Amino acid sequence: MQRLAAKLAGRRAGAVLGSLAAAGLVAAASMGLVVAPPDATQGNIQRLMYVHVPSAWLAYLSFGVVFVCSIAYLLTKKIRYDRVAHASAEIGVVFTALCIVLGSLWGKPVWGAYWTWDPRLTTTAIMLLMYVGYLAVRRLPDNPGRRARWAAAVGIVAFADVPIVQLSVEWWRSLHQGPTIRLLGESTIAPIMAAALFTALAAFTLLYLYLMVLRLRVGRLEERALAEALSPRIGRPAQELLDEQEAARVG
Questions:
Q1: Within a domain: residue 5?
Q2: Is 185 part of any domain?
């Protein structure tokens, strides 16, 4: 596990993931803007789906990783799980916000308003606020170990809203359209549109992996820079401060 994580965080792996993500995004843009036809009812505004839905998928993926890594951290006290959860939460917040903005732009011509207190929109907004709160907990000026445990607890509890967001359009009457692709049952989307959507989902997944690699690398650099800045002030080696911080998170 540690070797795999180290390889993924390496410069070569990052460059490969970046190239794959860029190629995927170009392919997704081509499929969504050129190959897929406009919707018969909504016209070209429907093309927002090829970014809106993948953004929602990345929100689910990111917060799922936060959930799993938070449990893993509480069980093992291994720092790498705490770092992955933190990085994934930041990415998830960005793409949840993007999902809401794109949904508002899509909603204006279709519903006549940028925002309604629709169950899907409301639960998504709550999800965003919960994970912004998660990131706020991570900035509390407290013992690193206690702060990591509190954040892990929030990350576990907040994930309860993710299935509620997904199922809200089926549980309550909603302006938001229901699922167009079902694993069981008939899908209501044209095959060429489904191909464009799945291409975008794959491209965004690669983008998530690339952003994770970058964020983990930046996180390590931030910790080292802080330790090196404090080292001359308190007269202790930077590596000793880094080791002490890791021990505090485990403790």
A1: no
A2: no
